[in-house]
Amino acid sequence: MDETHDGRTTREGIRIHEAADFSGMHKAGRVAAGILDEIAQHVFVGQNTAEIDRIITDLVAQAGAKSATIGYRGYQHASCISVNHVVCHGIPGAKTLKNGDILNIDVTVIVDGWYGDTSRMYVAGDIPRKAERLVQVTYDALMLGIEAVRPGNTFGDIGHAIQSYVESQRMSVVRDFCGHGLGRVFHAPPNVLHYGRPGHGPRLEEGMFFTIEPMVNLGRPETKILADDWTAVTRDKSLSAQFEHSIGVTATGFEIFTLSPAGRFHPTWG
Ligand code: MF3
Ligand code: CO
Ligand code: CO
After folding, report:
1. Are 72 and 187 in contact (CB under 8 A)?
2. Is any ligand 1 atom within 6 A of the Cβ of residue 89?
3. Comparing 123 with 5, which gets the higher pLDDT?
4. Is 255 helix (H, G, I), strand (E, B) or coil?
5. For the segment 144-186, what is each residue's pLDDT rounded down to a tens digit?
6. Is the dihedral of CA 212, 63, 74, 103 positive or negative?
7. What is the per-residue pLDDT across 229-244, written as a single tens digit (0 to 9) for each?
8. Residue 239 in contact with residue 171, Cβ under 8 Å?
9. Which ligand is nearest to the CA of 72?
10. Digit-coded pLDDT (tens) for 23-78
11. Which atom of ligand 1 has the smallest separation from the CA of 73?
12. What CA–CA distances, in Å, run from 235 to 8, 105, 222, 225, 240?
């Protein structure tokens, strides 16, 4: 591919983007987030996840965007849909949602060459109190991680903010998957760990674009991959939740590219 090489890359291989690149990311992020807004009305008891993915495929096309996941390392769907103890990379299929299920829907689109990657939790029917707590803690963990984003802080500060909060709530942070740099590519350096130590890891600089996407388990943090080579589940079968935003580092802090246009990022907001 013919990539342009304006801007620079840090010694850790992290691209520093130009001020003008932020608008491309905002546009891609808004499309991805708008699809997650639209899909909420299609999540209900008795619905199957293949149908949700089919609707997402249509929404991506209607937006004039391209799915980043279809064809990615052989993946064939426009979304990952991870129900209950599925941690991430759940493959949409015939299984129907039942009352009390919680699910993450993760969508990545390409708009004018820029990648927008975001995921949220959804619920089917009435969910148990402990599931509600898990979803809330995971959302708050993502936002605490984002609030640690400013030039001069480090990726370890982000991980530490997430890990210390999650563990204070007696839940665990998944180690086997992480956030990632993105921009005109889907997955780029650095690995954005959701655990860590203050002051450790690469230093944040204006112009870095990356995701933060903590996966939080009610039980132990260990995961395993099922025979389909994609689906990651908790080893102890405990419930897992995840939220993901794509963000950019500004001179004074951060901008979130994947904010919900409808103000519906959190499942309890409607
Ligand atoms: N959207 C996921 C992420 O947050 C990646 C999904 S790759 C797929 O990085 F192939 F499983 F879709
Ligand atoms: Co991601
Ligand atoms: Co994602």
Report:
1. no
2. yes
3. 123
4. strand
5. 999 999 999 999 999 999 999 999 999 999 999 999 999 999 9
6. positive
7. 999 999 999 999 999 9
8. no
9. 1
10. 999 999 999 999 999 999 999 999 999 999 999 999 999 999 999 999 999 999 99
11. 10
12. 41, 21, 6, 9, 11
Inform me whether the pLDDT recorded for 1 exceeds 50: no
* Ligand 1 pocket check for 117: Cβ under 6 Å: yes
Report residue 200 as tokens.
């450790």
Element (H, E) at 60: helix 49-62
What is the Å distance from ligand 1's center to 138 Cα? Answer: 18
For the CA of 89, the nearest atom of ligand 1: 11
- For ligand 1, what atom is nearest to the CA of residue 80? 12
Smallest CA separation from ligand 1 atom 11, residue: 89
Using the mean position of ligand 1's atoms as its centre, give its distance from the Cα of residue 89 in Å.
6
CA–centroid distance, residue 250 to ligand 2 (Å): 20
Cα distances (angstroms) measured from residue 80 to each of 108, 182, 200, 211: 9, 18, 31, 16
- Residue 122 CA to ligand 3 centre (angstroms): 15
103: left (phi over 0), alpha (psi -120 to 50) or beta: beta
Please state, in angstroms and rounded to a whole number, the distance separating the CA atoms of residues 112 and 61. Answer: 13
* Residue written as token pair 């609030």: 147
Query: Looking at ligand 1, which atom is closest to the CA of residue 180?
Result: 9
With CA atoms as reference, report the closest residue to 212 among 141, 265, 153.
141
DSSP code at position 208: -
Q: Does 60 contact ligand 1 (Cβ within 6 A)?
A: no
List, in sequence order, every residue forming a beta bridge with 9; answer none if it has no partner: 15
Ligand 3 mean position, distance from CA 118 (Å): 5
Phi then psi for residue 220, to 5 deg, are: -80, 160
Size of the chain in residues: 270
11: how many CB neighbours lie within 10 A of its CB?
6
> Helix (H, G, I), strand (E, B), or coil: what is residue 180?
strand
